[in-house]
């Protein structure tokens, strides 16, 4: 809710202070950090992130109530000019839901089945080490009680501090805390960017309008998130250079400057400005479900869905199986990247059964093979799968997706290193190594012991 300054001096001061940090001349004129300095700081800040390799994305908001359907029609809906998408969190503009009806969902947002502790515990089983929850998605609704907006958790019956509950659960379970914040698209505020549809749904803001939104909502809300919840990561969203007009390098640096001034530890993703992320982000964010073919030259992450939709969609049956996710995770690790796997909780806060099951399945594999993912460094792809390795290269992990029918796994030249032993990681059973013309081979059992990714540990 919006709070007049006179009623809540503490809160207002906090926001005003954060705000002053980006507007005071001294800071605005300060030279940007030298790239080398910024790089060293980022390296220290993101150590946990690179160690983790695996995180959980959570898309949850008012859209979750509609479950991908409106007025008897489900997304994707070819009869609507902009309805041809599975993304249930886009239901408002794509299915042309009347705005008053969409906004009214807030009045019945009472997530009685959201138990942050149980939720985090269930997700943690999978092996994830951090979460990123949509604190505000494109629709503009803040999932916490914001001092600069009435379109927020404060307008719901329970007024629960969901972000605080999640923060406490993460702390308890040793999981790092992240928030997605839609800083560019805001469909509720006149000044927020709007979808770039063939048939416009709402006009784009003028620059003056965007500036009003930027200073009056986006920057203060980001400051609130940091001051109230002390996140380890902020996840911003722009794509395809479409943000060019509104998210200029100046505004990008203003937002980064605000975050850096309030929190030395908070990581920032590259989608803060897709056309020019600059040197002061902490990692690149790939396109949705997009995997690079080689190391992009910086730390990176792929945001991935379990279905097509990010927000809960009741009739999106396009679930990946756990095996596909396990391979995606291994592929990311093999190229030095992270896998941010999404779940869309139901409107009542509960975890959909198919997601719960996949957490368990991935966790089963991770319990046996986690050493080949967590804390590893990149080593690239292989004809039969991919490679990861211990940071000191004392151990290499062959992730075998395609089991050779001749029972001999070609390891290649191993950079001229001589392996001491090889073993199936899960079974800790030795396998025979042999060498021919400088190339190494492992003798395999008849059948792949894991139908998704059998890991062979090669020690030096
Ligand atoms: C964006 C959001 O619009 C979407 O709702 C979700 O939050 C997702 C994680 O991010 O969607 C995108 C962003 C970038 C691309 C595609 C969808 N892209 O560049 O391919």
Structure description:
The protein is α/β, with parallel strands linked by helices and 460 residues long. Helices cover 29% and strands 19% of the residues. It has 12 helices and 19 strands. It has helices spanning 9-23, 25-29, 35-45, 47-52, 91-94, 99-104, 116-124, 162-173, 207-229, 249-262, 322-334, 353-369; strands at 54-58, 69-70, 73-74, 130-136, 176-181, 233-236, 267-268, 284-285, 300-304, 337-343, 376-382, 385-390, 395-400, 408-412, 421-424, 429-431, 433-436, 439-443, 454-459. It has an 8-stranded parallel sheet with strand order 7-6-5-4-1-10-9-8. Strand 9, helix 11 and strand 10 form a beta-alpha-beta unit. Helix 1 crosses helix 9 (207-229), helix 7 (116-124) crosses helix 8 (162-173) and helix 11 crosses helix 12 (353-369). The chain is globular and about 70 Å long. It starts with 8 loop residues before the first helix and ends with a strand. Bound molecules: 4-nitrophenyl 6-deoxy-alpha-L-galactopyranoside (JFZ). Residues 87, 89-90, 237, 239-240, 287-288, 303, 310 line the site of 4-nitrophenyl 6-deoxy-alpha-L-galactopyranoside (JFZ).
How is the main sheet built? 8 strands, parallel
Cross-sheet strand order for the largest sheet? 7-6-5-4-1-10-9-8
Low-pLDDT residue spans: 5-32
Overall spatial form: globular
Q: Strand portion, in percent?
A: 15-25%
The span between the termini is 60 Å
**Helix/sheet category:** alpha/beta
The small molecules bound here are: 4-nitrophenyl 6-deoxy-alpha-L-galactopyranoside
Oligomer: single chain
Discrete helix count: 12
What is the averaged pLDDT score? 93
What is the percent of helical residues? 25-40%
